[in-house]
Amino acid sequence: MNIKVLDTTLRDGEQTPGVSLTPLEKLRIATKLDEIGVDFIEAGSAITSEGERESIKGITQQGFNAEILSFSRPLTGDIDYCLDCDVDCVNLVVPTSELHISDKLKTTPDKLIELSNAAVDYCKDHGLVVELSAEDASRSDVDFLKLVFENAIEHKADRVCVCDTVGILTPDTSFELFSKLNDIKVPVAVHCHNDFGLAVANTLSALKGGATEFHSTINGIGERAGNTSFEECVVSIDRLLPEFSTNVKINEIYDISKLVARSTGVYIQPNKAIVGENAFAHESGIHSDGIIKNSATYEPMTPELVGRKRRFVIGKHMGTHGLDNRLKELGLNVDKNQLQQICNDIKDLADKGKTVTDVDLQAIADNVLEINHEDRIKLDELTIVSGNKVMPTASVKITFDDDEILNAGVGLGPVDAAINALKTLEVFSDVDLIEYHVDAITGGTDAFIDVIIKLQKGDKVVSARGTEPDIINASVKAYIAGVNRLLRD
Q1: Bridge partners of 67?
Q2: Predicted TM-score (pTM) of this structure
Q3: pLDDT of amino acid 291
Q4: What is the CA radius of gyration of the chain?
């Protein structure tokens, strides 16, 4: 059975505290959602503001394959704004629990049904597709919920949706609830929230119970603990529920996950399923050994399935097989005894609480192999000028091979100025700084600062570290160390 996917990143996802997307950001996300095969895109809530309406109009004008919706209350004013935005469909949200009807709307169940029916009629009279969403359905009387749905269907509603608004379903109760709705004559959707961490599990159970559509957000963003995670649900359907399928291009999931993370500023926890940076990372020696022999031993899917790459992490849990694989990637061939010595040295370093980077690994391996590299770039002088009314300015003097080079740069702060002074030099021009992390190793204002960076040149990525009491010196030394490493490679 083909399951339809409604993405509400641009509406429910944007309700994440602190998130406010620009029209251009919304359009970029909607464009990618359409490209990867999402069936329905909830572009926003037209009643919200003029800016929101402009965003929705920008999306509806694109001629996407996906059906474009707007959220709406069962009020003609809300629906008129949806019509102004030229959406295909209205997600008509009607509360169905006694709590919401009596305490929020201050009305009665009978009047609620009248309100719902009138709103559906108004939508259909104006040529809109209607998905009627029952808010707080999971705390509603099932018979009353069905009565609301049946009335809406009599008034030509096209789809209905059961909303677990406060995330109180469990997989068992979700399956039971949707099984009771199997006699509904139109497609039934599920919309779950993640307050107890069960949104994906409840959504999958709803599909097994008879739902044929699910609502989700990219990376599971949304109010409070968020919504059903799009990527987790789509991949789970593909890999774990062979009786179901979606139209989503799974190999592009990571791309849209990163796009939404960058646009919203809600970054992804490293251990998040499917799209987290550690989802396909291996440090354990047992796991690395198994992965090298057959990836299925410790991976339920290949990383390429979702647009990812596997990586082996250097650390005290690493075994010799994974380490040997990483050394070969760095162009280093070692014998059995050398490999074991490098492994022991890494464990000693990690036991001291130190993060083991590629630069550390290179240094350890060089020491074991008695290889001494002469750095081509050396920092001779670094001068910084900064203050309340002075644009941070840096001058650097370096020796590159046998040539002395003097350069200057400005930036938002002294570290930025120092790096900019280097980046404008030809030797640094094709190197991108892709990650920058700072830790204070000790306490106090004279603390040692540990700067860890990642640099990229073409398809090569290296890590580098600088440790100094001065954050500027530490940053510059880390940057130059990384570039020296790239030049050696």
Answers
A1: 40
A2: 0.70
A3: 61
A4: 28
The per-residue pLDDT for 52 is: 95
- What does the pLDDT read at residue 287? 56
Q: How many residues does the chain have?
A: 489
419 Cβ contact list (under 8 Å, min separation 6): 409, 411, 433, 475, 476, 479
pLDDT at res. 247: 97
User: Which of 369, 392, 419 marks a domain boundary?
Assistant: 369
For residue 2, list its beta bridge partners: 245
Q: Are 202 and 169 in contact (CB under 8 A)?
A: yes
Q: How far apart are CA 241 and CA 211, in angstroms?
A: 14
What single letter denotes the amino acid at residue 259? L
- For residue 365, the enclosing domain spans 281-369
Q: How far apart are CA 458 and CA 202, in angstroms?
A: 43
Q: Does 218 lie in the same domain as 89?
A: yes
Residues 6+ apart with CB under 8 A from 330: 358, 361, 362, 365, 489
d(CA 357, CA 451): 12
Q: Which backbone phi and psi does 407 adopt, to 5 degrees?
A: -150, 165
Give buried/exposed letters for 375-393 (b at 16+ CB in 10 A, else e).
eebebeebebeeeeeeebb
Query: Do 404 and 459 sit in the same domain of this protein?
Result: yes
Tokens representing residue 227 in the block: 């919504």
Read off the tokens for 207: 């599909």
Which phi and psi angles does 44 have, rounded to 5°? 155, -165
Q: DSSP character for 315?
A: S
Query: For residue 164, what is the enclosing H or E element?
Result: strand 159-164
Q: Please check whether residues 387 and 473 belong to one and the same domain.
A: yes
Number of Cβ atoms within 10 Å of the Cβ of 427: 17
Q: Give the model's pLDDT for residue 141.
A: 96
Question: pLDDT value at position 467?
Answer: 72
Q: What is the pLDDT of residue 481?
A: 87
Cβ neighbors of 486 (< 8 A, separation 6 or more) are 431, 455, 457, 460, 462
Sign of the C-alpha dihedral computed for residues 13, 18, 22 and 28 taken in this order: negative
What is the full DSSP assignment across 239-286? HH-TT-B-S--GGGHHHHHHHHHHHH--PPPTT-TTTSTTTTEE--HH
Structure tokens, 37: 């095969």
Q: What is the Cα–Cα distance from 425 to 431, expressed in whole angstroms? A: 11
Q: Which of 230, 234, 235 is nearest to 218 (CA)?
A: 230
Angle at 46 between CA 117 and CA 222, to 5 degrees: 95
484 falls within a domain: yes
Could you say which residues of the chain have pLDDT below 70?
282-293, 295, 298, 311-316, 352-360, 363, 367, 370-373, 440-448, 489
| Chain centre to alpha carbon of residue 164 | 23
What is the reported pLDDT for 486? 85
